Amino acid sequence: MASGSGSNFQSIIDAIDRGDINARINGLIAGKPHIKAIDRANRHYIPVTVLDQKAPSQFESELLSLLKSLNPDLIVLAGFLRKIPDSVVDTFEGKIINIHPSLLPKYGGKGFYGEHVHRAVIESGDAESGCTVHFVNEQYDDGDIIEQVRVPVNPNDTPETLAKRVLAEEHKLFPNVIAKLLTT
Ligand code: GRF
C-alpha cells in the first residue's frame, strides 16, 4: 500500500526479482491516483486499486473487502498516508507492517511524516536518526517494533539530505524484514 513515489515498493519488487524474498505481490493499493508507485506497479504487471475515497466508512469497507479478496500473508505499508481503520487492523492482526523514517518511538504519530520527521530531528539536535519497521496497530506508528537501523545526523544536514540517508537504509531494511517475516 503506497501513496507516493513508491521507492520502498520498488525495493521490494527488486528484492523479489533477485530472489531475496520468496513472494508474489498480489496487488498495489494506492492511496492517491497518478502517483509514481502506480507506474512502478504497471511496469511489473502488478494489479492496482486506487482507494482515494474521502468518506472514512466507504474507505474502510472497500479496503476490508479488497484485502479479504487478496487474502495476503503480509500487508506492507510503504508510505501509505491514510490511517488503517481498526476493523482492518483487527482482521489482519500481526500481518500489517509499516516503515517509518525515524527511530520510533521518537518522531512518530499524527503529523510526523515525510519532511516533518527529518525537520524535527534536526531541530532537536539529535546526533542520530534512522528508520523503523513495525507492526501496525490502531494508533499511528505505535505497534511493536520489528527492526531499526540507525544513521548519523550530520551538522550540515537539511531535511532533504537526512531523508536521503535514511531512505537508502529503508530500501535495505524493509526487504530484509519482509524476507524474514515470510520465512518464519
Ligand atoms: C518513506 O520515508 C517511509 O518511511 C514513509 O514514507 C516514505 C515513503 O517513501 N512511511 P517512498 O514512497 O517509498 O519513496
Structure description:
The chain is of the alpha/beta class. A four-stranded mixed sheet has the order 3-4-5-6, covered by helices on one side. The protein has a two-stranded parallel sheet with strand order 1-2. The chain has six helices and six strands, in the order αβαβαβαβαββα. The site of 5-O-phosphono-beta-D-ribofuranosylamine has 15 residues, from helix 1, strand 4 and helix 6.
Uncertain segments:
none
Number of helices: 6
The secondary-structure class comes to alpha/beta
Strand content: 15-25%
Report the strand count.
6
- Following the backbone from N to C, one meets helices and strands in this order, namely HEHEHEHEHEEH
Bound ions, cofactors and other small molecules, one mention each? 5-O-phosphono-beta-D-ribofuranosylamine
Secondary-structure map:
Layout: H1 7-18, E1 28-30, H2 36-43, E2 48-50, H3 56-70, E3 75-77, H4 86-91, E4 96-100, H5 115-124, E5 128-135, E6 145-152, H6 159-183
Parallel strand pairs: 1-2, 3-4
Antiparallel strand pairs: 4-5, 5-6
Helix pairs in contact: 1-6, 5-6
5-O-phosphono-beta-D-ribofuranosylamine (GRF) is lined by residues 2, 4-9, 78-79, 99-101, 131, 167, 170.
